[in-house]
Design a protein that fits this description.
There is one protein chain. It contains eleven helices and eight strands. The strands form two sheets. The chain has a four-stranded antiparallel β-sheet with strand order 1-8-3-6. It has a four-stranded antiparallel β-sheet with strand order 2-7-4-5, with no helix packed on it. 55% of the residues lie in helices and 11% in strands. The chain folds into two domains: 77 residues, no CATH class; 147 residues, Jelly Rolls, CATH 2.60.120.10. By secondary structure, it is an alpha+beta fold. Helix 3 runs parallel beside helix 4, helix 7 packs across helix 8 and helix 10 crosses helix 11. Pfam families: cNMP_binding. This is Cyclic nucleotide-binding domain-containing protein.
Length: 320
């Protein structure tokens, strides 16, 4: 202790710390020889001391920023009140910035996974419901497969494929559906006849609704009464089975734009054959009730439509 006092006293005598305004004893009392700050602080009037304080603050700020990344370093010891207050302020600001950044990243990540989380929740809920109802595992597996295919093909867990379209205004619904189904309608002879007005076609398009079938699902069955016809959408294919045998012999494959069930739509007749989904498939359905609704609004045009259907069916064998 005596040696330290002598060393500090000699430093002042030699003019090495001319900026200090307190005695060596006070310095010794303040620092207590172990780097701790006492009840009062040191005052320094020289420019180098201000530069040193500024450097300390900058190093502390950098350390606060880099510490969350495990890149921080140990700043020099802090002795003055200015240094301590700076540390407290920088730490507070740094913590606020960290919380803001982490919160923003968490929101961003959750928005990316929101739809997938809803899908996973749907799968879990469906499995639990099947177990609760005692549904056999083979059937429960097909149910889960339905939602898996629905998610893979549409990135949605809603079975209503037209839900988004139906939320639009009537004018937009007509435009969107006409854009989606226009090429399909043009391929059907009795709907692309020049004698039919565009208003009738638009009304029929507005009444179309989309139904999704899984692989091996039966769309229509021989001998059943039907009241709708279907158009194959952009996904999947349908196999028409041989009506003369009970074996599952496919005699025709229907793909995008093809259609079936015209007689059922027109006459509510029995189905003459069976159609099976060969893959996951979208079917756009037009029901007899929809045709009757159009007939009420355009009776003359609807008679022309039915006449065109009859002409078409007389020239080609149709599968109902």
């Amino acid at each position: 202790m005596i040696a330290t006092k002598k060393r500090l006293k000699s430093m002042f005598n030699k003019g090495q710390r001319s900026d200090a305004t307190v005695s060596p004893e006070e310095i010794l009392s303040a620092r207590k020889l172990d780097g701790e700050v006492g009840r009062f602080t040191l005052r320094h009037e020289s420019s180098p001391r201000y530069a040193w304080d500024l450097l300390i603050m900058v190093m502390i700020l950098i350390d606060v920023i880099l510490t969350p990344l495990s890149l921080g370093f140990n700043p020099p010891p802090m002795f003055t009140a200015v240094e301590q207050i700076s540390v407290a302020c920088f730490m507070l600001i740094g913590n606020i910035l960290q919380a803001s950044v982490f919160g923003s990243v968490a929101v961003l990540i959750s928005s990316f996974d929101e739809d997938e989380a809803a899908y996973n929740k749907k799968i879990i809920t469906t499995s639990e419901r099947c177990h609760f109802l005692g549904i056999p595992d083979s059937l429960a597996k097909r149910i889960r497969g339905y939602y898996e295919n629905l998610w893979r093909e549409t990135k949605s867990i809603s079975s209503d494929a037209d839900a988004f379209i139906n939320e639009l205004s009537p004018a937009l619904i007509c435009e969107v559906k006409f854009q989606l189904y226009r090429d399909m309608i043009k391929r059907i002879p009795f709907l692309s006849a020049n004698t039919l007005s565009s208003a009738v076609i638009e009304m029929l398009i507005l009444h179309l609704r989309t139904v999704i079938y899984m692989q091996d699902d039966i769309l229509i069955r021989k001998g059943e009464f039907g009241d709708w016809m279907g158009f194959i959408g952009s996904k999947g294919s349908v196999g028409v089975l041989d009506p003369t045998t009970d074996t599952r012999k496919i005699i025709r494959i229907l793909r995008k734009g093809d259609y079936f069930g015209e007689m059922a739509l027109l006459q509510r007749a029995k189905r003459s054959t069976t159609a099976v989904a060969l893959t996951w498939v979208q079917i756009h359905v037009l029901c007899r009730n929809d045709l009757d609704s159009v007939k009420e609004q355009y009776p003359t045009q609807t008679e022309i439509l039915e006449s065109e259907i009859n002409k078409y069916m007389q020239s080609k064998v149709q599968y109902k």
